[in-house]
Write a structure and sequence with these properties.
Number of helices: 7
Radius of gyration: 17 Å
Number of strands: 6
Strand order of the largest sheet: 3-5-6-4
Distance between the termini: 48 Å
Helix content: 25-40%
Shape: globular
Order of helices and strands: EEHHHEHHEHHEE
């Protein structure tokens, strides 16, 4: 397998084994909703950037504006829901939209005091900053659809790290 470098934000790489490309594996991973991205050693050694919720929502709103969608406001309750889910993901060491108790994004938002009529969620793991998570979300059809939902009015963001410093990012978009 060859090592891939990540110019700027990141890139996907083609797996090789004994000098032969394995594109079928990548197609199968894509079709099952999985993404594989190899990063350079330099990127892997970078520290995780702390989450700045205001800057994250500004980045979300810049993307929404560029795509003709109204902005969202930062909501502390959705951020609490996102942070708790990120902590749960870090504790389990895997990405999921189901909580360890089987909860959905809407249920978790309601537990945080947000009377959710809508609750959409994007999750990511391993990125070194919220901007890096956004980079990948914008390139994924389902995540992009959530980012550009016209019927949401608020957002919450959260991040938690494992003991080995792997970050798990959660974005919850909602409407009461």
């Amino acid at each position: 397998m060859k090592e891939c470098s990540v110019p700027g934000k990141g890139t996907s790489c083609l797996f090789t084994f004994a000098g032969r490309a394995i594109p079928l594996l990548l197609v199968l991973l894509f079709l099952t909703g999985c993404g594989v991205s190899l990063v350079s050693r330099k990127y892997a050694e970078q520290p995780v950037q702390p989450l700045n919720a205001q800057a994250a929502v500004a980045e979300i709103n810049a993307y929404r504006k560029a795509n003709g969608v109204r902005p969202v406001v930062l909501d502390a309750r959705l951020s609490r829901s996102a942070a708790l889910h990120s902590f749960d993901l870090a504790k389990r060491g895997r990405i999921s939209h189901s909580g360890s108790d089987g909860s959905s994004p809407k249920v978790r938002a309601r537990r945080a005091g947000y009377r959710a009529k809508i609750a959409s969620e994007n999750v990511a793991g391993g990125q070194k900053s919220f901007s890096d998570a956004m980079f990948y979300w914008k390139r994924s059809r389902g995540h992009r659809r959530n980012l550009l939902r016209a019927n949401v009015t608020a957002a919450g963001v959260g991040m938690a790290q494992t003991q080995d410093q792997k970050a798990y990012w959660t974005l919850v978009l909602g409407r009461e």
